[in-house]
Amino acid sequence: MTTQNSHDEIQSGLKDLISAKVSRRGVFAGIGGLSAAAFLASCGSGGGSGSGGEALRWGNWPLYLDFDEKTKKYPTLEAFIKKSGIETKYFEDYNDNDEFFGKVQAQLKLKKDIGYDIVTPTDWMAARWIRLGYTQKFDGANIPNASNVLDTLASPSYDPSREQTLPWQGIMSGFGWNTAKNPKGIRTLDDLFAPQNKGKIVVLTELRDTIGVILLAQGVDVTKVTENQYMNAVDFMAKKISDGWIRGVKGNEYAEDLTSGDATAVIGWSGDMFILASENEGKFDFAIPESGGTISGDNFVIPYTATANAKKNAEAMINYYYEPAVAAEVAAYVNYVCPVKGAQAEMEKIDPELAKSEYIFPTEKTMANLHVFRALTTEEETSWTEAFQKAAGN
Amino acid sequence: MGKNRTPYLLLLPGFGFLFTFFILPIINLAQTSTQTRVSGGDTGQYEQTLRFANYVDAFVDNKEQFGRSFLYAIIATVLALAIAYPLAYAIAFKSGKYKNLLLVLVVAPFFTSFLLRTIAWKQILGEEGFLVPTLRSLGIISQSTTLTSTSFAVVMGMTYNFLPFMTLPLYASIDRIDPRTLEASGDLYANGLTTFRRVTLPLSMPGVVAGTLLTFIPAAGDYVNAAILGNPNTKMLGNVIESRYFKIVDYPTAAALSFTLMAAILILVTLYIRKAGTEELV
């Protein structure tokens, strides 16, 4: 067998992985808009059963860790367990930030065990946990690899020196489009709101991404956005909805709308668009807007309810996932922005094609064009969400 | 003495169930609906201040979605009645040995999840489905007309999803009609239309009332169809309640809206039953 063949084999193996992922994600996506239903479902499963017997319990988003379909195991996690001897339980039941918060909030308030020693909320939710005092500061000595965090993600406003959070994966937001309908591509808001896309545009339910992209196009710095600037951008979106340009404000389901032809252009996430682009050769594309896109992350957070021993184990695991080789292995499966320096060099060894992927390893030029939406105060979080939800018809 | 107590003891589990899963949540909801934000408190922290103005605010803020919920529910109910009546009539009187099979077919959709069936409609009505290109090439809809993410799709989805709830009570009531009353009507020189108007329809009224209620009540509170098949301009009250509860974490407004919706449905239903005058039901 020639090298080319074996390479093809790896590629097709990867494709299988990706398509398995899509079909599973498709199911989630359909239900994604209905957090109440998801909430009910998750009530039944309940994580961790509160026994506290394991040395480490990790609650993560579905399809967010390398998974071997054949052995039904998570290779990197298995390797960690073997190496460290730390018995780790992995739960894929972090489906939605709001829903998960609703689920554990009562116990957190009472400082009772929530069934997890490490969780991975998105930036703004991690900020809420910190604000409420629900997190623990890391012991830096246990996580020497923390210095590998990408510069762009190293100092978010909610945790400027990364003392109690570290990014698990990064998520870029920008424009996604159907290349047949938009042959010249989409780089600006004007390209997005071009006549051929009228009534076929979908934007994200995540206000920091949708409004973030609009704000950047309006020349506003999202790291310092004021209430007036924000509300202006929301009004802009509301106008585009009432004028019939935007057909939906959605979560992952926008991917379905693109494939079914109901949407021709979106404000979307890099990981989803990577899968769409690689599954439908040349039919879809993604780019960071000229005026800039947003980058956010899901972060490792240790709840203050974790015991000292569990905390130490959690830190050991975070340190492990910040080893470039391990991070590369995860990135080859999840396709989101890898937050670990040096992982790209490691990826060269696994799959040189993926090492060149802008989706996983954005170039410095792209990175310079990505911005982190600033943390909101409690009052802002409520009133800004309310304004956004109202504009979305709710 | 022991004999007299038995029926009450037998009722206990039922009362217990109702108390735990109906009365207690209602009391809790009522309490939440008049709360306000703790000043300086964090997300989701509310205190009791008996602010009844919450109801006015909630209603005024969302009257559009209120109106839409009732409008869509009424249209869907009327459409479901128009489709289900002939269907139930045919099953009851004309199906012969296929009666049971047809009844099973009416219920069959329930074997699949409500969510999946609604998502399936999104694909059927989608751009690259079978329907839209066909209608376009026949010139029935224009090239730019789409069917998904429209109020048409939402109402259609509701009609489809609640059709069995309309068909089954109608069937039960039509099936009970003694065919000899129809023959008697014919003997008295009534034509088909008059027989239907003066005999069949009045005798099937309990089914009509039960079917319309079973369709209208869940349809008015539905949010799945609007979430999956609609667009931001077709959101219903259920969507607002969901967003208030989960996204904005504004429990009082969500509770006030739920109560207002419940009250509005109750009033409408009471008026309707009075007007329809079927004592058999109430």
Topology-level CATH name of chain B: MetI-like fold
Q: Describe the strand arrangement of the main beta sheet of chain B, using strand numbers.
A: 1-2
- The gross shape of chain A turns out to be globular
Shape of chain B: globular
Beta-strand share of residues of chain A: 5-15%
Residue fraction in strands of chain B = under 5%
What's the gyration radius of chain B in Å?
A: 23 Å
Task: Estimate percent helicity of chain A.
Answer: 40-55%
What percent of the residues of chain B sit in helical stretches (DSSP H or I)? Answer: over 70%
Describe the structure.
The complex is a heterodimer of chains A (394) and B (282). By secondary structure, chain A is of the alpha/beta class. Chain A has 2 domains: 3-170 and 296-361, 3-Layer(aba) Sandwich (D-Maltodextrin-Binding Protein, domain 2), CATH 3.40.190; 171-295 and 373-391, 3-Layer(aba) Sandwich (D-Maltodextrin-Binding Protein, domain 2), CATH 3.40.190.10. Helix content of chain A is 45%, strand content 13%. Chain A has helices spanning 3-32, 35-45, 75-84, 97-109, 123-131, 189-192, 207-217, 227-242, 254-260, 270-279, 308-321, 324-334, 343-350, 352-355, 364-368, 378-391; strands spanning 56-59, 88-91, 118-119, 165-178, 201-204, 246-250, 265-269, 284-287, 293-301, 370-371. In chain A, strands 4, 5, 6, 7, 8, 9 and 10 form a 7-stranded mixed β-sheet that branches. In chain A, strands 2-1-3 form a 3-stranded parallel β-sheet. In chain A, helix 3 (75-84) links the parallel strand 1 (56-59) and strand 2 (88-91). In chain A, helix 12 crosses helix 13. Chain A is globular. The termini of chain A are far apart. Mean pLDDT of chain A is 85; it is low at 1-53. With 282 residues, chain B is an all-alpha fold. Chain B contains 12 helices and 2 strands, in the order H-E-E-H-H-H-H-H-H-H-H-H-H-H. Chain B starts with a helix and ends in a 6-residue tail after the last helix. Chain B has one domain: MetI-like fold, CATH 1.10.3720. The A-B interface holds A 30-31, 33-37, 39, 98-99, 102, 105, 128, 131-132, 199-200, 241-242, 246-249, 256, 260-262, 378, 381-382, 385-386, 389, 391-394 and B 37, 41-44, 65, 115-116, 119, 122-123, 126-129, 144, 146, 148-149, 224, 227-228, 231-235, 239-240, 242-250.
